[in-house]
Design a protein that fits this description.
2 domains; alpha+beta; binds alpha-D-galactopyranose; Alpha-Beta Plaits; 12 strands; Ribosomal Protein S5, domain 2; globular
Length: about 400
């Protein structure tokens, strides 16, 4: 995968739409991927996360279909798939269409009447890179279809519909973080989200001396293949032993007091969640003071815990994080960690802006030398959330 910089907007997608369908789109919406700065595997434990939206987006262009059937195209150059109206809100093939089917179903549950649409999708959010390409897709589809049908949904409602789509149509029992930030992202801000009640605080990321660097491990991750669901189950098991509703309510003394009853696995999984929630708070406090050293310490702690206690990293991702400590330019990096669900995907690092290009190049080169893997990077500011970018 490439961390692409190819621009996608109304002017790039409209000509393709016209070429495919012979008429113009009437609504175009865009929704971003995300990078999580800190707080992983905490969202489904009613905990805290601190992601920011990317400038990389999924863009969805739609118009009424003159054929009476849905006609959808999953990406530039792909074939048109045709779906009868009555099938469009049921699970089906190809797999990617389930994200659209799910969002149609969720909108219909809220009273929307969705006629046959022609739909073209384009994206520069890398797939399988741990940057929430599927949440971006769901939010772009939801935003476009809601505008198209004239139904009002808030960004958070759209996010909840996206999460339900993942659960019911894509078999991923995800938390709310990815859809929430894709829907609610605000330029130049990360968001500290309390996943228990979805209240949040903006965390300005405007210090020009600091850059957010994302590097892809080039190991594709899939959250549908069991590891993610197994971690959720470990957390639920820990809660049953502790007699609590979610690990949000746990603390380290409670875990220590119940160490034997919990057993090793539940104990270390829960220890990650408890520690990670605390690290989100330390990170937010550090960023507010531009104390990048402390922010970096929280990130390093997060990576170690995800690697050792939650066991969701992998050798390649660990190599990238280690390189952040060992390259000649290491002193320019405050901290680095895996980001997102894990099992591959990307790392995120906070780096001195003056050196960030050089740092990225050193890491990419050393990674290639160490593992023989070619990969790419992204230096990014916090982007905006899902929005309609064109409506006729
Ligand atoms: C995936 C899920 C999120 C979250 C992260 C881990 O991205 O979609 O809900 O659980 O993994 O923090």
């Amino acid at each position: 995968m490439d961390l692409e910089e190819r621009e996608i907007n109304v002017d790039t997608i409209s000509p393709y739409f016209e070429q495919y369908f012979g008429h113009s789109p009437t609504v175009i919406a865009a929704a971003p991927g995300r990078v999580n700065l800190i707080g992983d595997h905490t969202d489904y434990n009613n905990g805290f996360v601190l992601p920011m939206a990317l400038n990389n987006v999924n863009v969805v262009a739609i118009a009424p279909s003159p054929t009476g059937k849905h006609r959808w195209i999953g990406g530039l150059g792909d074939p048109i798939i045709e779906i009868p109206i009555e099938e469009a809100s049921k699970k089906g093939c190809p797999f990617w269409s389930n994200y659209v089917r799910g969002m149609i179903y969720m909108l219909e549950q809220r009273g929307a009447v969705i006629p046959a649409v022609d739909m073209l999708i384009d994206s520069n959010v890398p797939r399988g890179g741990g940057l929430s390409s599927s949440a971006a897709f769901e939010m772009a589809v939801g935003t476009a279809l809601a505008a198209f049908c004239g139904i009002e949904i808030t960004p958070t409602e759209c996010a909840l519909m996206g999460q339900a789509t993942e659960h019911q149509f894509a078999n991923v029992p995800c938390g709310i973080m990815d859809q929430f930030i894709s829907a609610n992202g605000i330029e130049d801000n990360a968001i500290m989200l309390d996943c228990k009640d979805l209240s949040y605080k903006l965390i300005p990321m405007t210090d020009p001396s600091i850059s957010v660097l994302v590097i892809d491990s080039a190991v594709k991750h899939s959250l549908a293949d069991g590891g993610y669901a197994a971690r959720r189950k470990n957390c639920e098991d820990a809660c049953s032993v502790l007699g609590i509703e979610s690990l949000r309510e746990a603390n380290i003394d409670m875990l220590k007091a119940n160490k034997e009853k919990l057993g090793k696995l539940s104990y270390i999984r829960a220890r990650h969640v408890v520690g990670e929630n605390a690290r989100v708070h330390s990170f937010a406090q550090a960023v507010a003071k531009s104390d990048w050293e402390s922010a970096g310490i929280a990130m390093r702690g997060s990576h170690a815990s995800l690697r050792d206690d939650f066991e969701v990293s992998c050798a390649e991702v660990d190599t990238l994080v280690t390189l952040c400590d060992t390259i000649p330019m290491a002193a320019s990096i405050y901290g680095a960690r895996m980001t997102g669900g894990g099992f591959g995907g990307s790392i995120v690092a906070l780096v001195k802006s003056n050196d960030v290009e050089q740092v990225a190049k050193e890491i990419i080169e050393d990674y290639r030398q160490a593992l023989g893997i070619e990969t790419s990077y992204l230096i990014t500011r916090a982007g905006a959330g899902a929005r309609v970018i064109f409506q006729a």
